[in-house]
Design goal:
The structure holds 2 protein chains of 2 kinds. Chain A folds into 2 domains: 54 residues, no CATH class; 207 residues, MetI-like fold, CATH 1.10.3720. The radius of gyration of chain A is 23 Å and the shape is globular. Helices cover 74% and strands 0% of the residues of chain A. Chain A is mainly α. Chain B has a single domain, classed as MetI-like (MetI-like fold), CATH 1.10.3720.10. Helix content of chain B is 75%, strand content 0%. Chain B is built from 13 helices and no strands. The longest helix of chain B has 33 residues. At the A-B interface, helix 1, helix 4, helix 5, helix 6 and helix 7 of A face helix 1, helix 4, helix 5, helix 6 and helix 7 of B.
Chain lengths: 281, 293
């Protein structure tokens, strides 16, 4: 143990307080904006604390009355869920067999580097042909088309995470089962995949967060409520002529809720995933 | 089982992934290369071959050069700040104090906040009429009148960099913290007994453990920062007076706003090449660092 002189301790606590304030202030302010009456937010000097709690924007955004701001918000929420869900499932489905193969077959492991290298590609390098291709197949402004495009990000990423997950499962278990006469599909189904379940869950969550967060492709390839995702809807709100800043803040709080909850609950798994090399893009 | 069958089986298992990768990454990339040598429009005309005209025009244009400077500045300043703040935060979180676990949990929040929400949040904070920053600085007496932080070319890029740092330094901190916790206690204790001061302990005992993970974070963050689009699009759309127009924003405008698919593609490939050069240089650096330790 280090000697703790009181000056140092005071310094540590002061820094911790400062760090807490830096992290929390913007997030708390977003929440306060979402529950402050509009008059408080445009007051000078600004009312830092709401004069009364105003939950009307939450009601507005979550009401499904036709042609309302709420209907548009809910539609984009559903689109985001669909796109992220489909893209995650598809990415895991193609990544699991590939990651296992790469993990168990050193001779083909070079192909993994080719896969990872594509993760470095800026999306603008693919955007124009993807746009033309989606237009050709009539998949512009469709959740299915957008989910397909998200595979450009999710497939390499999940393969990379899953490969290190499979590496951590000893091959000897599999060879032992093989000597006992088990077929490959039995080994994978009954042995390897159950053991890999935690890393598969973490990879799926990471992939879902990436898709939930994505903005560039969604901005390019969607145009109305049929496919517009939450990130595009919020950017529209922020860039539009909405006069009530509280409404924008509320949309932000609602969009941030799922990833923040996942982040807090899954903290340990996320951090070990992050430090093992995967970093959210 | 023969080695031949094992590698055939591996390729079969990788087939679905390879099909996906070729159709959504490989083919578009090749087509971008083809387009970059044509004067194709985004919709309608397929365009004809124009040789390296697009590249020549883009590379010599002042738009590209200015966007390159803006992007480099954004990447260097934000990543440097994130690294420094991240390491300090990690050193702090590695100390014993009450509430440490809670603070560590909070660090995940900015990272988990979607980029677009973060950009929107800071846009509201910087708002020229009702923003919290103007209100706070005025009430503290630091400024006399409200300013348009994102509306003035002199402050917009800095305002963006601050918003980007706030979201990303906690990630660096968490990575650095994990590395710090891997430093064996007895080594630090031994260095202390030998009379090493705080600076020497950091430099010679802690730094070797920190260098690897930090370098990886540095590589990934720099590449991300070089590709930056979302936060800038939501906060300033590259304005005011193009003062925050980075390379990705420029490509977007060229290919999609002006619908010039050909020159947009050539610009996109120039950006790709720059990112690749960065990645390769870093990979060499990483290998040398790994060899040295």
């Amino acid at each position: 143990m280090e000697r703790q002189n009181p000056l140092f301790t005071a310094f540590v606590y002061a820094s911790a307080l400062l760090l807490t304030a830096v992290i929390l202030a913007p997030i708390v302010w977003l929440f306060i904006m979402s529950i402050s009456p509009a008059a408080d937010l445009s007051a000078k000097p600004l009312n830092w604390w709401p004069s009364e709690i105003d939950l009307s924007r939450y009601r507005t955004l979550l009401s499904a009355v036709e042609n309302s701001a709420g209907a548009a918000f809910i539609a984009s929420l559903v689109n985001s869920l669909q796109v992220a869900g489909m893209a995650t499932l598809a990415a895991i489905a193609v990544a699991v067999p590939a990651a296992w193969a790469v993990s168990r077959t050193p001779a083909v492991s070079w192909s993994l580097y080719a896969v990872i290298a594509t993760y470095m590609l800026p999306p603008v390098a693919l955007a124009v042909p993807l746009y033309m291709g989606l237009a050709y197949f009539g998949l512009l402004n469709s959740v299915f088309g957008l989910a397909l495009v998200y595979l450009t990000i999710l497939a390499p990423f999940t393969t990379w995470l899953l490969k290190s997950g499979f590496d951590a499962i000893p091959r000897e278990i599999e060879s032992a089962a093989m000597i006992d006469g088990a077929r490959l599909d039995q080994i994978l189904r009954l042995l390897t995949l159950p053991l890999a379940a935690p890393v598969m869950a973490t990879s799926a969550l990471f992939a879902f967060l990436l898709a939930w967060d994505e903005f560039f492709y969604a901005l390019l390839f969607t145009s109305d409520l049929r496919a517009k995702t939450l990130t595009v809807a919020i950017a529209d709100l922020a860039g539009g002529r909405v006069s009530d800043y509280g409404l924008i803040a509320t949309a932000g709080v609602l969009a941030a809720l799922p990833p923040v909850l996942i982040g807090l609950v899954m903290q340990r798994a996320l951090i070990s995933g992050l430090t093992s090399g995967g970093v959210k893009g | 089982m023969s080695a031949n069958w094992i590698s055939t089986r591996a390729w079969l298992l990788m087939l679905p992934l390879l099909v996906v990768m070729v159709s959504v990454i490989g083919w578009p990339l090749v087509d971008t290369v083809r387009l970059s040598f044509t004067d194709a429009k985004l919709v309608g005309t397929a365009g004809s071959f124009v040789g390296i005209d697009n590249y020549a025009k883009m590379l010599t244009g002042s738009n590209f050069q200015r966007a390159l400077v803006t992007t480099t500045w954004f990447a260097v300043v934000s990543v440097t700040a994130e690294m420094v703040l991240g390491v300090f935060a990690a050193l702090l979180l590695n100390q014993q104090f009450r509430g440490r676990a809670a603070l560590r949990a909070l660090m995940i929040l900015p990272w988990a906040l979607p980029t677009v929400v973060n950009a929107t949040l800071w846009r509201l904070i910087y708002n020229p009429e009702y923003g919290a920053l103007n209100a706070a600085l005025t009430q503290l007496g630091l400024i006399d009148s409200y300013r348009s932080w994102l509306g003035e070319p002199g402050s917009a890029l800095t305002a963006l960099i601050i918003a980007d740092c706030w979201k990303n330094f906690p990630l660096v901190a968490l990575i650095a913290l994990a590395a710090l916790q891997a430093v064996p206690r007895d080594i630090t204790a031994a260095a202390l007994v030998d009379g090493a001061g705080p600076f020497n302990r950091f430099r010679f005992v802690v730094m070797p453990y920190l260098a690897g993970p930090l370098l990886v974070a540095l590589v990934l963050r720099t590449i991300e920062a070089f590709k930056v689009f979302d936060i800038i699009w939501v906060m300033t759309r590259g304005g005011p007076a193009n003062s925050t127009r980075t390379l990705s924003i420029l490509v977007y405008q060229e290919a999609f706003s002006f619908q010039r698919a050909g020159s947009g593609a050539s610009l996109a490939l120039i950006v790709t090449l720059l990112v690749t050069v960065l990645a390769v240089a870093y990979a060499a650096l990483l290998r040398r660092a790994a060899g040295a330790s």
